[in-house]
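> tool_call: predict_assembly(chains=two)
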Amino acid sequence: MIAIRNVGLFDEVQARTEELSDSLQQQTATANVLKSISRSTFDLKSVLQNLVESAGRFCDADKGTIVRERDGVFYTAETFGYSREFVDYMKSVPIAAERGSASGRALAEGRLAHIADVKADPEYTFVELPRLGDFRTALCVPMLREGIPIGVLTLTRSQVQPFTDKQIELVTTFADQASIAIENVRLFDEIQDKSRQLEEASKHKSQFLANMSHELRTPLNAILGYTELMADGAYGEPSEKMNAVLKRLESNGRHLLGLINDVLDLSKIEAGQIVLELSEYTVQDIAQTVRSTLEPLAADKKLAFKVEMTSELPPGRGDGRRLTQVLINLVGNAIKFTDAGEIAIKAEANNGSFHVSVRDTGPGISAADQAKLFQEFQQADNSITRKKGGTGLGLAISKRIIEMHGSRVWIDSTVGQGSTFSFVVPVRVERQVEAT
Amino acid sequence: MSKRILVVEDQPDNRQIIRDMLADTGYEIAEAENGEEALAAIAKARPDLILMDIQLPIMDGYAATRRIKTDPALKSIPIIAVTSYALSGEEKKAREAGCDDYVPKPYSPRQLLAKIRQYLS
């Protein structure tokens, strides 16, 4: 009694083991196919060939095809097991979505067609095909994209021998993989196409901005030129009142020029057209240039101008001209927004980086406004723009320049207690970091 | 004998500025609106200095400069490029074409005049 039960148990265990081993084999097969797909995204033909052959091997089918769609027409794309002549014939005729052929039936119905014996199937009308192609049982699984067939994976057997549920399940998985592979390639092509279009559009934009900048500069040359000639008395000595007007003309003209230059600069950075000119520089030289450029402006507002740095900073490598532009921007802002007290540039080197900061005793910037500062056309308070001038692009440009050096710029500020803008750059920058 | 300056510039207002700028300097002014006219003007009366706009119709400033600088009889005439092209590398292009100096637009008439005096003193 126990022995009989044991035998029963043994059989059951054996059956389970076989089942498990089958399902393991199935999983391994699927995994291998998936691997082959991920390895060769760009060689769709061999991926599909591999898929149909693997499906045939794992499901005991001696022949198979993959039907695909091109411009609304279905055609035989990949095959295995059929005679050369039959393959040539299949490839020469389009496949209509109709119940008369095996693949056509799967296309027409959008779901799998399993024909146990094509010769015994009353609806199968392509009676010559089974003879020429030497097949009797056919399993056709549509490859679907969003429920619409984009192809069919077909396996056939030369003997009448229907596929098991397990085999059907496996072929369905393979058909799904085939549609994923096709979809991947389609998406990849689409993305490439889009990025080509974007590149083209970006080139047009840059060219447009370069042209616009040129067109705007030409009349600006006349405006600023005549203004200066008038102020210099080329058309007679100007009155006090006229001089005041000429000064306004001049400063507004300069402001417009600043805008044009900044927009051009930013667009060039965005288009990846600004290339850092890497060479040797010293932080001392940069600070000196900034000081001699901006100290007069600080003096006009009776602000103290301090430079705090140790004398033994190492020589740097990077784009000294662009870094000077950044520091001029930061110090210029500090002077513009500070009404009393001091501006201080501080620089030190540690851990292979320069740490440069610009401290002011200005009004300070609230946390909410700090977040917007480095965006294009933003100032902490837009009403300030009219009072203090500026394009709102300087910090955005500075941020990009520092990022191209592989570093960052940030602000520490408390309302009522002044602001400190800081940036770090590696002492030695050997390679430009691409904008993201 | 007063020095002669050839102004090559297609924009009437910008020619007028240079005329006004040079009004009391005693320099003689000749004008051309494009590269071809410039070459004709040089053939008629050799200038001592050329202010060359770059973006010109018919023949641009680069082409005209190259023609002048490859002519042994003319190549010693200093050419100052005056351009509103703001792309980086524009100065390098101007120098490669043979320009002796480069002034970006918008320029300050005062500074341009100082530069002209440097070359003509």
